[in-house]
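The passage that follows is intended for readers who have already worked through the single-chain material. We present the inputs for a multi-component assembly, then the predicted structure in tokenized form, and finally a short commentary. You are encouraged to pause after the input and sketch how you expect the pieces to fit together before reading on.
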Amino acid sequence: MNKTKKKWAVSSAAIMIALSLAACGNGGDKKKSSANDSGRAKLTEVYKNPDKASKSANAKSTLKVAEPNDSPFKGVTEPTLADNQEDSNVFSPGGNGNLFNVNKNYKIVDGGLADQKLDRKKNTVTITIRDNAKWSDGHPVVARDVEYPYEIIASPKSTSSQYSADFERIEGMADFHKGKTNTISGFTYPDGENGKKVVIQLNTLSPSMKFAGNSFIWGTVAPYHHYKGIAIDKLAASDQVRKNPLFVGPYKLDKLVAGESTSWSPNKYYWGKTPKVKHITINVVSSNSIDKAIQTKKYDFTTPGGVMRGTSYKNLKGLKDYKMVGIPALSYNYFGFNVGKYDTETQKNVMDPKAKMGNKKLRQAMMYAVDEDALNKKFGNGVKWRAKTLIPPVFDKYADKSAKGFPHNEKKANQLLDDAGYKKKGKWRVQPNGKPLVIHFGAMQGSATSHATYQDYLQRWQKVGLNVKMATGKEMEMNSFYDTLQKPKQNQIDIFAAAWGVSSEPTPTQLYGEDAPFNMGHFVSKKNTELINSLNNKKAWDDSYRTQQFKKWQEYMNDQAAYVATDNSFDWNPVNKRVKGFDLSPANNDFWANLSLTSSKIQ
Amino acid sequence: MWKTILRRVLIMIPEIILLSILVFLLAKAMPGDPFTGSINPRSSAAQIEHLKQINGLYDPWYQQYWNWVVHLFHGDLGQSYQYHEAVSNLIGDRAVNTLWLSAFTMVLTYMLALPLGLYAGKHEGRLPDTVIRIYTYVTYCIPFFVILVIGLWIFGYVFNWFPTTGSVSPTAHGMGVLSSRLEHILLPGLLGALFGTVNIVQYMRSEVIDAKHSDYVRTARSKGVPNKDIYKHHIFRNSLLPIAAFGGYSITGLLNGSIFTETIFSYPGMGMLFIDSINYRDYTVITALVLMFGILNLLGTLLSDIILGIVDPRIRID
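Having made your guess, compare it with the prediction:
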């Protein structure tokens, strides 16, 4: 299972899923999620199967896994080049090149393929690969394999979309990216390229580097000996990546049927625990038929990270012989308000004090007007609930459990609008200056559920006297939606509904920072910048300070209501009762090797 | 005839050029680009610009078009933005899957529809004709995706007779791959054939009825030719003319794929590739596919005309 999920702008398909899927628990409680929100399922992240594993079942039977998806997977095994979750899912028994082990808070811990040591005095990160680490062809994992992913990402010819300015904290990275140098000077190998140690020189370290999924230290290895000689712009299309890939995880790829299935057997060179199950297959199954496939016992479970809809949960939750296992998702849906523009010259977002949605009380009123609790009760199917802050509850430590978010309060919404001077003139409220107020709501086409949800929003806003209409008159096609929002300046959409998948390191700089291009509502304030910066300043090496600053930031963002998370969800899986050792916890670093079977047939 | 074929092929050239320009411009006119909405938020604005620039998305359209044409003449259809592999490889993989399924479905459809049409025409107005007509109308009325879902549910999941996903089993090796492929196309192929006969049956039936009352059949009867031979040598052959005209399109249409079948059976083929490429603005794939479909359609028309010319001396082209 890929521990270091990255942040993604969520596509229309994903938002459909996110809307129908849902959300997560009260902050990653290992045992059971809170049942405070009415109707929320009580899912555990571990399936404690009391039955004994069967040696013959492990040896002779095939563990059948379904990847619920309506499209074929892309087939890019190299994590630096893959830009979708399904590739990561279908190749996960191979380990996805993961370098580090993490604990339940995604903090990097010793004991993985490599260990990491931060030296704050010298501003270096030392990565030491374990002695017995080997690729699935028997070749040892060496220092160069740790450095090569950075070359793939940062090469001027790279097709990877992973490069960010944060990498430029590494000495020589900017020059390499511009094509001025052929090597990244910040990487040194005390024992040579074929040694086991890499030292990365940075201009400054960040507390976020302690966590997997941070934006400075890349978390996977690449087999340099296997890729050597292939131009980086041709790498994604090469046979080495697509047909004969190498892995460092517990399993090696036996067979790949392009776009539809992968087949695995134990990797005899794996450094860790010997995998118990001798054969695994992963098949793409249409989301239209995944419920039926599970009900007729064709699969043992669905891929962790694979998208299971809320409606599927409704259909499968009572299924005999299957246990529903879930963990709060690394994602959330949110509302954003258009309050400014992106200055292409300075490459910074700029707030417009005269923006239509510039009034904080107007934004707060709109959030109090909607009723996420009712919507989730109706459509959440127990796996989605109202979000309280912009940090998903999977981050147990950082998510502010005391935050109340915006529970439905029509009276308060009216009061806020009255106080702010948005008086009623006829049917609708007008702006404080007396001019008419028409608000355009932008949302992407999705499922029938998302359509009903958007209609409910409109009705709730209209009920408090706000004349809110769908931007462009209807829900927008995904490309049109993001094309509009990503324009440096636009006035077609005043408020929008979208979704983010987030990294396992939750610093929000890339989403809500002053110079973040994905800060599509362009909210900027001195305090927001200060708070975001404080999450990774020198004081933030102290965990309690960092936690406190995260909470302050959430409180501030809820007060400003320029971006408001609407709901969180569970990532959940149906697991057949013959499977033993199924554990979704981030701390279960050996997910696939820990699995075993208790009987030869799916029960 | 060769002259005609050559003339038609030459006329196709400006048609294809015009088509390619239109396809290219229309693809570019769609909102968004391959990086819209799916970019990693870690990427800096500069990196997004960089990716667009190295992919030539900021070049004027005529320059982009020209680059594309130059590459095309070198046999390079470009790289898919979504799949990160050569478009030709991508289409090649999917085309094989689609060909298997389409050809199988087409053969089954003709095998089923031709005898049914002949039988219905022969027994015009009687019970067999009524039953066959009701069958074709019913199958025509039910949306195909409904049939696929129900068929998959009953025969795939409830009875467990057929594989339910993919084009080949991940565990198949050697000769097993071939049988696994056949096994995987059996259910969608059968459903496609059983529920796709209406056009051929109706054409065949009405042609048979027409032929039955024609002078040459009356003459043959008066000469004492046995009924069986009349149907075999006179009616059936002549009734095949409109079907033959369909033939060209059917053959070139084999590569079109079916979005419904492919999605419901998770069968990676051309239909799904086309829809996904549009959704994700995978320009290189869109342009290659539309151009390919366009060329195949033009060839289909030509092929149909040639077939008609061969089988029907009255309209022989020269």
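Commentary: Chain A touches chain B through 71 residues (CB under 8 Å). The first helix of chain A runs from residue 12 to 20. How closely did your sketch match?
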